[in-house]
TrEMBL record:
<comment type="similarity">
    <text>Belongs to the Dus family. DusA subfamily.</text>
</comment>
<dbReference type="GO" id="GO:0102266">
    <property type="term" value="F:tRNA-dihydrouridine20a synthase activity"/>
</dbReference>
<feature type="site" description="Interacts with tRNA">
    <location>
        <position position="186"/>
    </location>
</feature>
<keyword id="KW-0285">Flavoprotein</keyword>
<keyword id="KW-0288">FMN</keyword>
<keyword id="KW-0819">tRNA processing</keyword>
<keyword id="KW-0547">Nucleotide-binding</keyword>
<feature type="binding site">
    <location>
        <position position="171"/>
    </location>
    <ligand>
        <name>FMN</name>
    </ligand>
</feature>
<feature type="binding site">
    <location>
        <begin position="211"/>
        <end position="213"/>
    </location>
    <ligand>
        <name>FMN</name>
    </ligand>
</feature>
<feature type="domain" description="DUS-like FMN-binding">
    <location>
        <begin position="15"/>
        <end position="304"/>
    </location>
</feature>
<feature type="binding site">
    <location>
        <begin position="17"/>
        <end position="19"/>
    </location>
    <ligand>
        <name>FMN</name>
    </ligand>
</feature>
<keyword id="KW-0694">RNA-binding</keyword>
<feature type="binding site">
    <location>
        <position position="139"/>
    </location>
    <ligand>
        <name>FMN</name>
    </ligand>
</feature>
<keyword id="KW-0820">tRNA-binding</keyword>
<feature type="site" description="Interacts with tRNA">
    <location>
        <position position="97"/>
    </location>
</feature>
<dbReference type="InterPro" id="IPR035587">
    <property type="entry name" value="DUS-like_FMN-bd"/>
</dbReference>
<feature type="site" description="Interacts with tRNA; defines subfamily-specific binding signature">
    <location>
        <position position="183"/>
    </location>
</feature>
Amino acid sequence: MNAVINDVIDRRLSVAPMLDWTDRHCRFFHRLISDQVLLYTEMITTGALLNGDQEKLLGFSPSEEPVAIQLGGSNLDDLATCAKMAEDMGYSEVNLNVGCPSDRVQKGRFGACLMKEPDLVADCFAAMQKAVKIPVTIKSRIGVDDDDSFDSFERFVDTVSSAGCQTFVVHARKALLKGLSPKQNRSVPPLKYEYAYDIKSKNPNLNVVLNGGIETVEQAVEQLNHVDGVMVGRAFWNAPWLIRDMHNAMAMGEQKLTRDEVLLAYVDYCQHMVKQGLSLHWLIRPILGLYHGFPGNKKWKSHLVTEAPRRKDDVTVIKEARDWVTYAG
C-alpha cells in the first residue's frame, strides 16, 4: 500500500515546513499557484497535538491536498498516536522532524539532536509506519556539530532505511546545536549537496529530496539530475510565484490561473475566513511577495501591512493594494 502511495505523490517540488508561515491559509494560497506542489504543515509537536486543540492544529481544507504533516517528538507511542490522527484527518504523508536545531526542540529531545540517535529515529519511524497506511518520511540535516562526516550521515540513512523508510528530505547543512540561532543554522553551515547526491547514487531505490539554498528555477531543475526532488522554503516565502515558475520548468502540468486570478481567488477565501471571525491581518502574510520584482511592490506590501490590522474584516484592502502594482498578465 505504501509503495503505491509513494508513487502517487509527486516529490519533484515541495514547500518546506516553516514555523509561523506554512499554516492552512498559506497552503491554500500555494495550492492556487500549483495543483501539484507537495505542501507541508508547520512542525507540530506531539505534546501540542495530544494536549491542545486538535481541530485547530490539524484542520485543513480538502482543496489543499496533497498535504504532509510534520511532527516533532521522540516518544514512540505518542508519535504513533499522532500519525494515526493525521491519517484519519486526511493527510497524505507524515514527516518526522530530525533537523530543527532550536534549544527548545533539543530540550524536548527531538529535531536535529536525534541525528545522534539513529536507532531511536529508526524506532520512531517503525512505530509511526506500523500505525498508518500513508507514507512516513524523514527530514534531517547531514549531521550535527562535529559529527558531520559523510560516513556518519550514511550510517544514519542506512539505519533508518533498514527500518523501512523510503523517503529522506535532506537539508544539506549540518546543524550546530550550540552557538547559532535557528536562523543562522539555515545559512551559516556550508551546504554539502554532494552528501545527498551520494546517498541517492548508492541507494537508487530511495527517494531523496534536497533542501537548502535553492533559490532559482535553474538551481531547482539542475538538482533533478542528482536527486528525486527539491524542497524550497525561504525563496517561496519571499516570492511565492516562484512555485509556478518551478512547476512549469519541471513540466508538472498546465496551470490556468494567472497571478491576478490567483489573487482574486484568495480574496474570496479571505472573505469566507473573516466571516468566520478571523482577522485579515493573519490572512495577508502569504500574499506579501506575490508581486515581488514588479513596480509598486513596496507600496503593495506597505498598504497591506498598514491597513489590514486596522480594517480587520475588510477584504477590499487587498484590492486597493493591488492598484499600486504595475503588472499585466
